[in-house]
Amino acid sequence: MDKWSPFNVAIWAGVVSGLITSLITVIIVVFWKKAIEPWIANLLYRGARIDGIWKGQVSVDGKTLVQHVSIKQNAYKIAGTITYPQDTEGHAHTYKFKGRFVDNVLTALAQEDGIARTDQGALALTLKSGVSEIVMEGQGTWLDDKSLITVKYKWILETSTTALPEHVAD
Fold first, then answer.
1. Statement to judge: residues 2 and 27 lie in one domain
2. Which pLDDT value is given to residue 170?
3. Domain interval for residue 101
4. Structural domain contains residue 39
5. Which of 20, 45, 44 is nearest to 28 (CA)?
6. d(CA 83, CA 140)
7. Which helix (H) or strand (E) holds 9?
8. Mean pLDDT of successive 10-residue segments in the chain (170 residues)?
9. Looking at the structure, do residues 85 and 145 belong to the same domain, yes or no?
10. Contact indicator for 59, 152 with CB cutoff of 8 Å
11. 51/160 Cα distance (integer angstroms)
């Protein structure tokens, strides 16, 4: 039997076309999930937008510490960074967080960014509408050595990267 008989050519052509079709399908699925689906979700989202730079205050051990918060929002998904210029011991920290913003409630998990990356916690803040400022208030739970501590947060919007609706909270 000839090595390149019509039957062998048809088999190889089927295998190659199957691999190419699979590759094209994978590329389309990845593009859909990474680009099209988030774009559609963001287009259809009608809730409050919290993108922007926030000035934060957190109460730890009776002290009020300043923090800078940057939030990026895509529909219900949020991601951002929290930067402490100084903690209770005078050290600077940066945390990255990811979570969701649904019905004016932000819930997120945060982890310290850097070499050590030992600190992690959870945040739950509620968006409040005020006369002169837009505020989120809530609590965070953090691991302190081997125990959990709860701290109070207040974030005030400094610079919005998107327009917020007239009423942000009911």
1. yes
2. 39
3. 52-160
4. yes
5. 20
6. 15
7. helix 6-31
8. 79 93 96 90 86 90 87 93 80 90 94 79 88 83 82 89 50
9. yes
10. yes
11. 6
